[in-house]
UniProtKB/TrEMBL annotation:
Gene3D superfamilies: Acetylglutamate kinase-like (3.40.1160.10). It comes from the Bacteria. ATP binds at K12, L13, S14, G15, G55, R59, T162, Y168, D171. Inhibited by UTP. It comes from Tepidiphilus thermophilus. InterPro entries: AceGlu_kinase-like_sf (IPR036393), Asp/Glu/Uridylate_kinase (IPR001048), Uridylate_kinase (IPR011817), Uridylate_kinase_bac (IPR015963). Residues 8-215 form the Aspartate/glutamate/uridylate kinase domain. The gene is pyrH. One of its GO terms (cellular component) is cytosol. This is Uridylate kinase. It is an enzyme of class 2 (transferase).
Length: 238
């Protein structure tokens, strides 16, 4: 039997991934399916850290657009990620997979605070670690939190789960001739102006040579294939 290509990964799930076709919030059926796929990969012995977004509930930038103070709006966005993290963790419990939520904002009645050494310990003991509240700072995104936590825990790769199964030459929904990049270097992605992750996250991954694999979380088995090192989505490398 083949072995996974990675021992430790950082999976970035957007809040929208939990929404399914709903206009807002958490769709339990969708969460069940995603958690099932992650549990399968955990069963292969891969250590998994997850950074969860909050866009299915609240985005700071939208709050600011309607007149809210940006930093306040961003803190609301971070709290939204805590709700998502708790929902994910509970779904893992139903799958009998151990997980812990570590939050960059202290809300100790409900989740553990983020302490790097503790995160690594949980990973080594086979627990899935869900990083909540992004970086803990306004004006950042959970993409940046994914790059940061990925770097901190020594993940070998950041897996960016999106709706599209990789990075394309053009928008595949608008242009039928658009082609998927199987592999692309950081420099080439910049040269071609491809939006892989937000600019801060991308710059950090590039600086520390942390590869990113963009794939679709809605494609059954795709996560497993990425983890097995198969050609799935787009691999961005140094
Ligand atoms: N956010 C923040 N700092 C962080 C991470 C997130 O202020 O380090 C806020 C920001 O307002 C953002 C919201 O939390 O809009 C939800 O995160 P994000 O938009 O990254 O979620 P996703 O698009 O992945 O669902």
């Amino acid at each position: 039997m083949s072995t996974p290509a990675y021992r430790r990964i950082l999976l970035k799930l957007s809040g929208e991934a939990l929404m399914g076709d709903d206009p807002y919030g958490i769709n339990e059926k969708v969460v069940e399916r995603i958690v099932g796929e992650i549990a399968e990969v955990s069963g292969l012995g891969v250590q998994i850290g997850i950074v969860i977004g909050g866009g299915n509930i609240f985005r700071g930038i939208q709050g600011a657009a309607s007149g809210m103070d940006r930093a306040t709006a961003d803190y609301i966005g971070m709290l939204a990620t805590v709700m998502n993290a708790m929902a994910l963790s509970d779904a893992f419990r139903r799958h009998e997979v151990e997980s812990r939520v570590l939050s960059a904002l202290r809300i100790e009645q409900v989740v553990e605070p983020y302490i790097r050494a503790r995160a690594i310990r949980h990973l080594e003991e086979g627990r899935i670690v869900i990083f909540a509240a992004g970086t803990g700072n306004p004006f950042f995104t959970t993409d940046t939190a994914a790059a940061l936590r990925g770097a901190e825990i020594g993940a070998q790769i950041v897996l960016k789960a999106t709706k599209v199964d990789g990075v394309y030459t053009a928008d595949p929904q608008k242009d039928p001739t658009a082609k998927r990049y199987h592999r692309i270097s950081f420099d080439e992605a910049i040269g071609r102006n491809l939006a892989v992750m937000d600019a801060t996250a991308f710059a950090l991954c590039r600086d520390i040579k942390l590869p990113i694999n963009v794939f679709s979380i809605f494609k059954p088995g795709a996560l497993r294939r990425v983890v097995m090192g198969e050609d799935e989505g787009t691999l961005v490398h140094s």
